[in-house]
Write a structure and sequence with these properties.
The protein has helices spanning about 5-45, 70-90, 95-110, 110-125, 130-135, 155-160. It is mainly α. Helix 2 (about 70-90) packs across helix 4 (about 110-125). The N and C termini lie far apart (about 65 Å). The relative contact order is 0.09.
């Protein structure tokens, strides 16, 4: 084996090692982002009344009207909207998205969250559009609402959609 053969093998091994480091770094970055958003959820959920998370109101807990906590609900909706956007951009793993989607769906099915959500959508209809799309299309993973950029023809990329909802999933 000549010196040039050894150099070629070393170069190939170096390329594989760099590729592996890039993949590992991307995974660590994604995990850190997901962990940060989980911490933010815990902070926001601690601000909300405990009764908001119960299916059946507990008679021993004082019931607070959701209007008193509308700012905290808005923060929750903003976080959930951000989570949906990050899944659309494929910056959140499918496993994490499934957990988050289950939690978002569970929370929005509760009475206090539902009342707050309806109030926010009525008074700010142009906000939280990603979350509203998920709310209407629970069966569709936002990451697949549109194909990844790598699979789109370049000519099509230069065109603007003919309607604002072109990126939304198809109606069932």
């Amino acid at each position: 084996m000549s010196l040039s053969d050894i150099a070629s093998l070393a170069t190939a091994a170096g390329v594989v090692l760099v590729w592996y480091q890039l993949v590992l770094g991307r995974k660590q970055t994604r995990t850190a982002l997901e962990d940060d958003l989980n911490r933010e959820y815990r902070v926001i959920s601690a601000e909300l009344p405990a009764s908001a998370f119960f299916d059946v109101p507990d008679a021993t807990l004082p019931v607070r009207a959701w209007q008193e906590d509308v700012v905290s609900y808005m923060r929750y909706f903003d976080l959930s909207n951000q989570q949906v956007f990050l899944r659309i951009e494929r910056r959140i793993s499918a496993k994490t998205w499934q957990l988050w989607a289950d939690g978002i769906g569970d929370n929005l099915s509760r009475e206090a969250f539902g009342l707050a959500w309806n109030y926010v959508r009525q008074h700010s209809p142009r906000s939280f559009n990603e979350l509203a799309s998920v709310y209407e299309h629970w069966d569709h993973d936002p990451a697949y609402w549109s194909p990844p950029v790598s699979r789109l023809p370049w000519k099509w990329l230069r065109q603007k959609p003919d309607r604002p909802d072109a990126w939304l999933p198809p109606e069932p």
